[in-house]
Amino acid sequence: MPTYFATCPRNIERLLADELQQLGATDVERTVAGVSFAGTREVGYRAVLWSRLANAVLLQFKTVPAASPEQLYESIRTIDWQEHMDVDDTLKVTFTQVDAEITHTRYGAQKVKDAVVDQFRDKTGRRPSVELRTPDLHINCHAEGEEATVSIDLAGSSLHRRRYRQSGGDAPIKENVACAMLLRAGWPDIASEGRPLLDPMCGSGTLVIEAAMMAADQAPGLLRDYFGATGWKQHDEELWLDLMAEARERAREGRSRLPVIRGSDIDSNAIGTARANAKAAGLDEFVAFEQKPLSKVRPPAGPNWPGLLVANAPYGERLGENPEATAVHRTLGEVLKDRFGGWNASILTGSEELGRQIGMSADKTYTLYNGSLECLLLNVRVFRR
């Protein structure tokens, strides 16, 4: 059975492992910033199409000696690359390492690329071209110790890029980090009960859109126009088209049962971007955004059933470093206590000190990484006054 490795931001490995098991993966094992698993080709394709948390899904097919750059080159040349691509196809190579003899990742990638194109040149007299954005074949090579694992990157480019974002705005939250935040907050269960979601500092709308996609059972990969799997010579097109058709039908059905999902922001430009992003995601009819300062935010109109408030609050590494961030956290705490009794709140902040400015004790806290930035996720139950 094929083996895979899915990469992800640090500290969401457990969530990713659970997600992959739900998609049919077996032999699931967590490591730092990734999860290994086994499964059929269908399981691998489902992971590419449905994972809300992964950055990449790597189909592992060969482990080779790599005690030196020269040995890596010769090892890669032993693989018959005509089984994976044609000379007219394009390729990209990504090289990573952990405690390996080859420590320079760019040099490692160069040696792998040279081995592949030199093999084609020797066999055909021609060599494939390199394409960094949308290659037909994205080769991943991970060296550890004196060996390297060679994989096909079935995603091709990072899966957190859903292709709906027109502009990120200030300090945007990555889409898969937003999903980790929503899962930690228990949003799937809250949504299934028909309860609302509100983001009062929505920026470009990522949390709102990801929440809507999750509640609607819309595959995050459904919006993408490029996957590394589809250019691979061994790609199963019939299986892929079946999975895409299933995903489209599930999204169509899921949109009919969406709860109230709203976002607001004080910045009119951010609201314009959020609306454009929602339209690109095909969700503009199901979510709403309005310009409003945080101090004026109230629960959405409709049934008075407590829901979930989410916020990617302004970051600041130390208290006092960003006075505006401090003031926003204090205002958020006041608004929650005054108007959102009975609600759950999930707040991503830059530090414990800033989190304390909210003035409420968190039931649970988690460390998340938005890119390289370490953040603190606070899950709060707002008590009624």
Strand order of the largest sheet: 2-3-1-4-8-7-5-6
Fill in the CATH topology of the largest domain.
Rossmann fold
Using only C-alpha atoms, the radius of gyration works out to 23 Å
The CATH class assignment of the largest domain is Alpha Beta
- Give the number of helices: 11
Which whole number gives the mean pLDDT? 95
Q: What separation lies between the terminal Cα atoms?
A: 57 Å
H/E series: EHEEHEHEHEEEHHEHHEHEEHEHEE
Task: Determine the strand fraction and express it as a percent band.
Answer: 15-25%
Uncertain regions: pLDDT < 50 for 5+ in a row? none
Secondary-structure arrangement, i.e. CATH architecture of the largest domain: 3-Layer(aba) Sandwich
Number of domains: 2
Structural class: alpha/beta
What overall geometry do the principal axes of the alpha carbons give? elongated
As a percent range, the share of helical residues equals 25-40%
Please give the number of β-strands. 15
CATH superfamily of the largest domain: Vaccinia Virus protein VP39
Can you walk me through this structure?
The protein is of the alpha/beta class. The chain is elongated, with a radius of gyration of 23 Å. It folds into 2 domains: 151 residues, VC0802-like (2-Layer Sandwich); 166 residues, Vaccinia Virus protein VP39 (Rossmann fold), CATH 3.40.50.150. The termini are far apart.
Summarize the helices and strands and which ones pair or pack:
Blueprint: E1 3-7, H1 13-22, E2 26-31, E3 34-38, H2 41-50, E4 56-65, H3 69-77, E5 90-100, H4 105-124, E6 129-130, E7 137-145, E8 147-153, H5 175-184, H6 187-192, E9 197-199, H7 206-215, H8 237-254, E10 261-265, H9 268-280, E11 288-291, E12 308-312, H10 323-339, E13 344-349, H11 352-356, E14 364-370, E15 373-381
Helix pairs in contact: 2-8, 3-4, 5-7
